[in-house]
Amino acid sequence: MRKTIALIASGLLALSVSAAALAGAPETFAQKCAGCHGKDGKGQTTMGKKLSIKDLTDAKVQAATKDDAWEKSITEGVKNDAGKVVMPANKGKITPEDIKALVKVCRDFKGK
Ligand code: HEC
Fold first, then answer.
1. Tens digit of pLDDT for each residue in 12-70?
2. What residue owns the CA closest to ligand 1's atom 36?
3. In whole angstroms, how far apart are CA 65 and each of 23, 40, 61, 74, 107?
4. How many helices (H) and strands (E) are present in the chain, helices listed first?
5. Best residue among 32, 46, 73, 106 to mutate for probing ligand 1, ranked by most atoms within 8 Å of CB
6. If you take atom 42 of ligand 1, which residue's CA is the nearest one?
7. Is 36 touching ligand 1 by the criterion CB < 6 Å?
8. Which end of the chain, N or C, is less surrounded by CB atoms within 10 Å?
């Protein structure tokens, strides 16, 4: 019985943690990403234009890259062809779980 309760409790905890991560992801995007990618994901910011950021609402951009590659870009950052860091790494700053939630936020821009 006690084991069952413990199991239910840990299940609930896991559920609330992932729900919190998802709820927080749009705010994280607004704080850490929108400065370059724009609140609408189109990349039409001063930085976005300078760095020729892709339009995340574009279905072709969405189709060109899989979730795990985006996860990697968000975790490790992005370098341009000259090897210059154009998007900062978030390793150790954003948890892997929150990075997954951010990929979802980026996916949600599709067609908007
Ligand atoms: C300093 C500006 C800057 C910031 C801040 C930034 N990015 Fe980027 N991001 C870029 C650049 C530049 C690229 C490479 C060009 C491109 O792919 O659009 C890029 C690429 C990406 C890609 C890959 C797009 C693709 O199809 O290859 C994703 C996804 C992404 N960023 C998400 C994020 C998220 C999420 C955050 C916030 C945690 C973030 N970026 C913060 C500049 C930035």
1. 555 555 555 556 999 999 999 999 999 999 999 999 999 999 999 999 999 999 999 99
2. 33
3. 24, 19, 7, 13, 11
4. 6, 2
5. 73
6. 87
7. yes
8. N
Q: Whose CA is nearest to atom 41 of ligand 1?
A: 33
65-94 residue pLDDT tens: 999 999 999 999 999 999 999 999 999 999
For residues 70 and 3, what is the distance between their CA atoms, to the nearest angstrom? 39
Give the CATH number of domain 25-108: 1.10.760.10
pTM (2 decimals)? Answer: 0.85
Q: How far, in Å, is the centroid of ligand 1 from the Cα of 50? A: 13
Cβ of 100 less than 6 Å from ligand 1:
no
Q: Which of 112, 77, 111 has its CA nearest to residue 93?
A: 77
- Using CA atoms, how far apart are residues 92 and 95, in angstroms rounded to an integer? 7
Atom of ligand 1 nearest to the CA of 105: 35
Whether the Cβ atoms of residue 41 and residue 106 lie closer than 8 Å to each other: yes
